[in-house]
């Protein structure tokens, strides 16, 4: 009985002591938790729309430490890592007792360290809480930290910490940073040779750096590949083949795309680690490659900027703010996509669009290109010469100044500015000035971003898109009235798509317009297909003159090269909308055959005040409005001359309201022949007969 009593008392004492020890350890664990908060000090990243890395920034202490999870790396790398570093990783609680016993026994027998017993959990403890000394006490603390970490985190979370913080020499930390620096790619797909090198380096990262000690790196990789467990993890013969693969001898720069967008993202949200943008990495790479090549040809002090946007969504898919962000001679730090500059002739398409919309002209209308005086304003052409009589189509394609100003005088500068506001674009006028005729030739300030936003309307049937800023701003189609009617937009695109490409540039099926500001300070070009708009600006950031700088000669070649290098396939321009047709000059109404204004600003065919005349649709026209499908589109009616208000009749039936505008929409009841009549306030009438298909 005494023996049993002693055993019971001893057992109870053991339980009490064990419980006390457990409580003491638990209290110590709570009092001195592992510094897991240090694991959150990571490199900020700027990503493209698909999550690809555009640019990373070093941490405050100058480290490249990119957050990396198990899902971010090749599964084969993980198998090799566990097989080489910690085969019982998924079974132990932070300390591998068997490995620890084996290492201790080998140390006693050989008097030196033969094999290590460090687990991945212990290595995580070491990197998040580094210690300068390598003493027995430090090792015990590392063991304790490993147990603490295992109590708090899952195995996958522990691997995530290792993959993010493992040292790779210099200021590289983590598998992603090392893979990008040595292989130029994310670690999602690694060869056996690449994976083996990434497994080997963290053990002695400084001694095994491939860019400084190639032989040591080769030997370390070989040891990894020769480990039986690793060979089993990678399959028969793979380890032997991997040994023959060359190791990279230099360290590459981590991705550093979209410098201005990335800097803006950090300024807007300095506490965010991952910044999503609307950019597309392949597009951005292509545009920046074109910018670098163009900068070498442009010469010193000149910069350039580009924006490529999706006209259907408003998303900026590529943006280059300068020729070289780090080139002080070009003021590369200035984002020239957001600086107001004179747009030259790039606003002319909108003037012509308004003229088409109002029925003032057609593509084949004759307009004079001769010296003209607009109350003291005397515009001249870029080359100081004049073409005489030209068609409206030729005037826009040749970017003639006098015809553009004549049309702006007819449609009204204020009306043009109102249309720009529909696209949420407000060009900057000179101080204390109202909109005047000079805006047609670049007499306003506008940014490249706003200019591209205007052109999204031309690429998408008149409906503009809001571009946002590529970072936090929300892009999207703008609600409300279109900037221009679809038929007018089609006429503009039909003309601009016929402009001859620059010498050596391929015909890509795009419409484009160039512009050169006064004094050769800015060279512009904006081009678009059926979906994307690309704008290019070239000039000096200090606004100095650059003799010989032109939109067609300088900016247009960059536009075509950038379209080609963007990797985006050309989308055909929109098909003609209902009612859009190019009418031969001989078939035009008399008032549209030649553009002329009387003293009252009315279009005239002779010296008398004109009677009303329907200029669209023309007499006898067959107009496809979708009658065969049963869902008819409305028909736009346009007139010239006459005196407002106007009453329209369709097949003898008056349309609902009187109108003071020279355009009107009519919704046909069905297909077939219809007669359209307009009567002005003086009782004068005009009629046409058309066929609705």
Number of helices: 21
The rounded Rg comes to 36 Å
Query: Helical content, roughly?
Result: 25-40%
Low-pLDDT ranges? 6-24, 598-602
Distance between the termini: 114 Å
E-strand count: 22
Give a short account of the largest sheet. 5 strands, antiparallel
Can you give the mean pLDDT? 87
SS-derived structural category: alpha+beta
Largest beta sheet: what is the strand line-up?
7-6-14-13-12
Proportion in β-strands: 5-15%
Gross morphology is elongated
The oligomeric state is: single chain
What keyword list fits this structure?
five-stranded mixed beta sheet; 22 strands; 693 residues; alpha+beta; five-stranded antiparallel beta sheet; 14% strand; 21 helices
Please provide a written account of the structure:
With 693 residues, the chain is α+β, with helices and mostly antiparallel strands. It is 35% helix and 14% strand. The chain has 21 helices and 22 strands. A hairpin with a 5-residue loop joins strand 12 (511-516) and strand 13. Helix 4 (120-128) packs across helix 5 and helix 14 crosses helix 16 (401-411). It is elongated. Mean pLDDT is 87; it is low at 6-24 and 598-602.
